[in-house]
Amino acid sequence: MASFKDNTKETFLGLIESAQEWWADFTQFLQETWPLLILLLAILMGIWWYADPPPPRHVLMATGSPGSSNELLGKRYAEFFAKKGITLELVATNGAQENIDRLADRKDDLQAAFVQAGVVHTSGVTGVESLGVIAYDPVWFFYRGSELKEKDFQGFDSKFQYFLSKKISIGMEGSGTYAQATKILKLSGYEPGPSFLKLPPDQAIQAIQKGEIDGVFIVDAYYSPNVQALLNDPNLQIGTFGRAEAYVKLIPYLRILNVPEGAFDLKRNFPSSDMKLLATTTNLLIDDRMHPAIQFLFLEATKEINGKASFFAARGEFPSFKNTMLPESSVAIHYEKNSYPFLVAYLPFWLAELVNRLVFILLPFLVISYPLLQALPGYRTRRMQNKINRLYSDLKGFEQELLTNFDLSLRDEYLKRLDVLEYQALTIRVSRRLASDCYALRTSIDYVRNCLNRGVQPYQINETSVALATQVINKMEPPV
Question: Is cis: bond before 56, omega within 30 of 0?
């Protein structure tokens, strides 16, 4: 009985021999099928490149006017993208209308933009999708002078009649501020008069601080420099909306933001009482041709940047996929249900995206190519067996020729032909499974050669030989 050491040694030797045999078969397989494998690889690379091209390294994004919250937000997005190896170039515009017009233009290279809800009618907009709502944009109205008390007016929408004869900035045409201000004013029954100015935000702020105008509408986030400059000016007051719930019912995209007394400045006790602000929302809109990986990256940026708690938003409130301006992209729907691919948490963005693309392409490709690859070993076996069979056929034909037309003077020529057959048998590359067939072929060739070398006329058939063979056959037949 063999020892444990001997059994272990034999086991490892057997494994090594099996590995060597597998490697020999594999290298031979590559040598024989490399054209087909190259063709399959070319098909795979073609599908990979054209069906799922790699994400771009440079993306254009529209923000808004200088000094706006969207400009600051865009810079934070650009920093996030830079960490992932993507350049996010920010494009300053005149506001939401220009942003969405450029996104809808199929010839424009712009791929993403911040757009306020309610700025434009989206029924005729095509080629643009939403990645969700990412922030609140309050509708602010600042005015100069002493505070107008609520006991004298039923909310800001009622006391605004006081400002109809004053100089008021309602924002540039095409901007979110202009769209929201005019909509709210008209809904309240006020038409913008000749004293209403269409100033850009920076000019409007300077004008009201210098006393050149009496009031200013601005639709922007709480943390924007423009809003902060107005909130910190002790000479300015904020208009509040006494019928905020009614506006929300009539304008569905609006939201109510509650501001407690003193929330903006406790020292000044500003505001001096609880107030309600109307707010629209900022949507992240994209060209619907944007690469899915870049869309996922934008969604991750919204989660990291806009998902934090802020003055008006609770932690995790954004991104929101409710009441979006336009239909959500399929990527946003997937993200809402499944979040970001698992690999991104552990791999760099480019590597995680490469793995995801490979999986996306390889899985369907393997479904098609696997049966073909499975058939290759059988194909190789049949191909090698056919080579052996052809040599057997040549040998059989040669032997038949000797039986019918044997010429003793050509024996040397016959032997040379056998040498050629034997050389062909020696040069056939076969797997170990077919090695026995190859040796059997060589044995058959040796048998014919021995027959030629035996006797004077081993393949010459005469009448005597035929008669003797007939007698032998007759004796072998059983009686009837």
Answer: no
